[in-house]
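Appendix C: a fully annotated inverse folding record. The material below is reproduced so that readers can follow the format used throughout the book. The structure is listed first as tokens, followed by the designed sequence.
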């Protein structure tokens, strides 16, 4: 056996193990970076998708409210035609009756027409408030989804701790100790055979 061979072999094993640990750490870090980049892309796509979904909800609300206003205007047009057609005060005025009773009848009929319009306006206001409430709920859900996605991606990733550098054995000292051991063995053999004492 060569002097210091065990120390050299131990040093080589420690060096190989250290290099393997560094390579393993680098592979793990590259995989973590790849997964993190994928998660960030998914997060951005999720934000975009939730914003698009929310804009569709708002668009649907606007379209529905527009339809309700159109329907209310058509109903008001029908009510106005009926008011003009069945207007007793107008007929009385056309026939020459223009007293207080004719004015009172005209006021009552106009009040009925305006009350129908007022009820419809109230229904539109209530409907709009309900639609706005649904829009706020959809916005809250989208925001919660976005914050949840952000929370999953807000973690700052760091590589694992580097493995400690190996402590190499001193080959010269190991060779010297091997030489002393060999010399001690020779000396003890010499004492056994009695060579030194004679």
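Designed amino acids, in order:
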């Amino acid at each position: 056996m060569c002097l210091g061979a065990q120390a050299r072999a131990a040093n080589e094993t420690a060096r190989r193990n250290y290099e393997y640990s560094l390579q393993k750490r680098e592979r793990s870090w590259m995989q973590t970076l790849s997964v993190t980049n994928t998660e960030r892309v998914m997060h951005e796509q999720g934000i975009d998708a939730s914003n698009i979904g929310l804009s569709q909800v708002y668009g649907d609300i606007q379209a529905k409210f527009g339809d309700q206003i159109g329907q209310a205007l058509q109903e008001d047009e029908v009510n106005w035609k009926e008011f003009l057609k069945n207007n007793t005060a107008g007929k009385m005025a056309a026939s020459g009756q223009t007293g207080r009773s004719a004015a009172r009848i005209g006021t009552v009929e106009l009040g009925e027409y305006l009350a129908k319009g007022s009820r419809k306006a109230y229904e539109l206001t209530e409907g709009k408030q309900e639609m706005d409430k649904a829009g706020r709920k959809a916005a809250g859900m989208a925001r919660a989804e976005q914050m949840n996605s952000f929370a999953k991606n807000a973690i700052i990733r760091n590589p694992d701790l580097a493995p400690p550098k190996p402590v190499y054995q001193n080959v010269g000292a190991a060779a010297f100790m091997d030489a002393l051991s060999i010399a001690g063995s020779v000396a003890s053999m010499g004492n056994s055979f009695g060579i030194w004492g004679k």
